[in-house]
Design goal:
By secondary structure, the protein is of the alpha+beta class. Helix content is 29%, strand content 21%.
Length: 540
Amino acid sequence: MPVPLKTVRRSLATAAAVLAGIAGLSGPALADKSLVYCTEGNPQSFNAQLSTSGTTVNAATPLFNNLVELGPTGQVMASGLAESYSVSADGLVYDFRLRRNVNFHSSELFTPSRPFNADDVLFSIERQWKDDHPYHNVGPATYDYFRDMGLPTLLKSVEKLDDHTVRITLDHPEAPFLADLAMPFLSIQSAEYADALMKAGRPDLFDEKPIGTGPFRLVSYQKDVAIRYKAFDGYWRGRQPLDNLIYSITPNIPVRLNKLRSGECQVMIFPNPAELGSIEKDPNLVIEQRDGRNVAYMAFNTRKPPLDDVRVRRAITLAIDKRTLVDAVYQNGGMPAKSPIPPGMWSYEDEIKDYPFDPAAARSLLVEAGHSEGFDLDLWYTPVTRPYLPNGKRAAEMIRENLERIGIKVTLKTESWGNYRRQATQGDPDMVMYGWTGDNGDPDNFLYFLLSCGAVRPGGANIARWCNPDFEERITKAKVTTDIEQRTVHYREAQRIFHREIPWFPIANSIIAVVHRKEVKNYTNNIFTQDFSGVDIETQ
């Protein structure tokens, strides 16, 4: 039997006391082996099942593990909570042999009575999948990632063969399925903790006060201030070098940099590209850069006139000086995009020629489409720094200036990041600036997740509201074969269809930079799957 929950009053009082201790990030409580990570925003929760936001994933990653993991080149590895797996010849049945003696965290609310087992795998999948699951409707969960990846119709059954064996049977073959299992939305949660909270009448705490198997456990969270973690002594891979990990929530880029230079934080994400030159000259700082595996884009609402007319979308595309925009916004940290997937990804169709900057041709297309007098549109821009778009406001201002020259009056809009994301996925705005960073190295994670017909829904990832049967056929065929050459053929044709129909104005593919102090050791620039395993810091 699990150790019962304390009373709610005592639990909340304890949590408040823990939160109160966050105020002095540089005080005695954060002694040796403490690392402060300057991040850009507040998570929406600590469960990546509930949000596609990179900020949420970033905050949840140190807390959890997955059945399988992705290696440095994107290969699937049985190095997670499954010690091995097998796949049937027809690609439909996956058997996972689970690790033994993997412990869950404890907290002021809960102490586990058993290690990780098959029940936790079933809970983590079925909560998202089954409408009648006790936790399916807990909190603001809509499971957008699970739905937009097509898992509700892909899964046929998830079975517990014994405490340490799970069988997942698919309805049809799915080439990227193993890679999907390595993604944060399929991290493994504690079924025993969920049961204890449900019995106590507080299931709402499950996503606010998480219990995982990861290298760090959550201590406290204070909105707009900090998230504090502590090394998990019982971690199955061994206790990590850091004692304390603190996310200092700092939306302002110059403030993040000042904190880094002063030593108030040891790692900062999303530096201003224009500052990289001066940062590089600082002997106390180290820049880690890599291909961002991402794309920034402006989605057209293809369900709303006049953007339902491909001629109008093409006119807008021709009217924007993309090269100048990318130079101004990204400095040396990005390159113009022409596809919905980044250039470094297999199946990228480099033969596509990007649309030129041609305002005269744009005006002619508007006349042809019956809009010689122009029209009004709203353009929503990201209010915070994103890895794929360092300055959404500046980019939006440049786009507005370009479009007004061909007679399109643009009203710029934005809201707080959480509200912005809700607005973007509800299908109301005319044009929305957004972006995506790949999670699993597979084109499916861009082309299907962001542009499939199934993702055209309130809350869905297809914010262009674009459903093209020919495109859908290609990306669906690519999912059901493991032949990499056939998948490449399908994905390249899908990119050509995208280019003709223009549901987005692709903006840029960016380089991701993270800056840390020289005393930080073994840090790798892998923002959204960074669990801080092995990271260390030299102390004075």
